Amino acid sequence: MKDSIIILCGGGPAPGMNTVVFSVAKTFLSNGYRVIGLHEGYSGLFNKNPRTEDIDFFKADAYFNRGGSYLQMSRLKPTDEDFEKNFNLPLFQDNNVKLLVTVGGDDTASTANRIAKFLQAKNYPIHNIHVPKTIDNDLPLPDNAPTFGFNSAKDEGARIARTVYEAARTSGTWLRISAMGRSAGHLALGIGEATHCSMTIIPEMFNKTAISLDKIVRLAVSTIIKRKLLGIRYGTVVVAEGVFHDLDPQEIKNAGVTMTYDEHGHPELGKISKAVLFNDILEKEFKKIGLKLKTRPVEIGYDVRCQDPVAYDLSYCTELAMGVYELYKKGETGCMVYVDKDGDPKPLYLKDLQNEEGKIPPRRVNLEGGLARNYYGNICHYITPDDYEAAKALVANPEEYDFKKILNW
Q: Alpha-carbon distance 394 to 406, whole Å?
């Protein structure tokens, strides 16, 4: 029986999923291996009747450059009981599987870390290599290397935001854009910088003060007032969805926003448009302070997840896939594949990246780095002490909308 590998995809889709999966397939096929695709992510791995299919060259060649994910994905986070009772070891034994390739983000990487430790503890001779994916760009890769999918998502997000900005300029309105980014603001900041958005609000900004709806609102009002003083009566405000996930649930409830709650009493923000939520709260503030503005919400969400990957990710994902083979041949396991600036694959051991809870912590935007520092210093518009006197014609208390005072910077 041929040596085999199994590939699965976890979490949500990102541009380049198919490029990784089918480039891994092509590479291992050309080296004499059987390649098995496992549907439904970790649900398939902890299932006595998993849905699998063999991948041949023609299937790989037909799908490697497409968006979406040919292998159906799942967000299952297996429990300790799943590992002890439901891990499908016969799937590996009966098919002579030597390597499990997992493709996904921080949650998938954390589970891959658990699988690596589980296999080691049970002395199962199966290698495990993870390919880091997330449009959020929040996995801790060296030298600020991006996660695959991020650049394609940013490209599509910027295309949408450019159109939105032109609509704002043409009609003299303000548009609120919500961008994905559960734990970090890389995507929102990338879109904001690329489109010269006048304000981008990300979770990392609140590094010296507690995050609150009031501060988020005042940051948005700050850029509107500043632009009015400059004679600019239009613009866009980009907000990373993560700022809403970091809020106290009671704040959202007190704002009069109607939503469903999970069994723990937490608001199910994934079910609502954060752009609509933000816009509704802002309009209440405008009425309170007497600002007359036309505003519209725009959500950038699943629009950027399944489009075809741009050339950068097509190349990058192919290099990552070939890197999986190179690491496997060197005997590596329990690691993420990383490709350096010269295209050379290196292992990042999951045990070295985990925190005390065994999870892979997210990489946050570096506010001291050149991208954030220069954007907020040169492109972003907001109230400073020099604007107080002129701003009194628009609001009674301009110092409350001072960008650096709001953030305690």
A: 18
Residue 155 tokens read as 């490209």
Identify whether residues 141 and 34 lie together within a single domain: yes
| Domain co-membership, 132 together with 167 | no
27 alpha carbon, distance to own chain's centre: 27
CA distance 76 to 43: 6
The single-letter DSSP state of residue 206 is: G
Same domain as 389, residue 259:
yes
Positions annotated as catalytic residues are: 136
Does this model's pTM top 0.85? My answer is yes
Report CA Rg, the chain.
23
Report the Cα 273 to chain-centroid distance in Å: 17
**How many structural domains is the chain composed of?**
2
Distance of CA 142 to the CA centre of its chain: 17
**Whole-angstrom distance, CA of residue 20 vs CA of residue 9:** 10
Q: Residue 358 domain-assigned?
A: no
Give the Cα separation of 341 and 359 in Å (integer).
27
What is the extent of the structural domain holding 198?
Answer: 153-305+366-407
Q: How many CA atoms lie within 13 A of 294 on its CB side?
A: 9
pLDDT tens-digit map of 184-227 = 999 999 999 999 999 999 999 999 999 998 999 999 999 999 99
Which of 212, 225, 183, 256 lies closest to 382, judged by CA? 225
